Design the sequence.
């Protein structure tokens, strides 16, 4: 749940890097919450019988559209790629499950090993 909240705090931050755990825990909790909302809408009759969607689920999906894209872009950055790689369907999945770059890259310091940034500076000097 920590990562889900962390992504929401960085609502529209498209710079920097996101660890695999940040991305996938956000994805997991997003799916769980969406399922709970769908169950509640179905049980209370709030869902449209034709589409199976209700206003509560639609509002939740729209509210998390920007942070979902933002964490995806930051995840691509962690692997050393542009956020535009989100538009390549299966390759972005490959990148999302891949290890991030060790140490700093052009998108920022390593979120998994923040001490590596200090090591990078010592090696450069």
Sequence:
């Amino acid at each position: 749940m920590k990562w889900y909240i962390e992504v929401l705090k960085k609502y529209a931050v498209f710079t920097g890097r996101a660890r695999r755990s940040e991305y996938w825990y956000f994805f997991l909790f997003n799916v769980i919450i969406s399922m709970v909302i769908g169950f509640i809408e179905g049980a209370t009759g709030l869902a449209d019988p034709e589409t199976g969607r209700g206003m509560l689920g639609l509002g939740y999906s729209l509210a998390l559209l920007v942070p979902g894209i933002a964490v995806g872009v930051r995840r691509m950055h962690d692997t050393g790629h542009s956020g535009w790689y989100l538009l390549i369907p299966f390759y972005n999945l490959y990148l999302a499950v891949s290890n991030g770059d060790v140490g700093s890259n052009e998108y920022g310091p390593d979120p998994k090993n923040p001490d590596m940034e200090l090591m990078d500076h010592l090696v450069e000097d």
Remarks:
- The chain has one domain: 2-98.
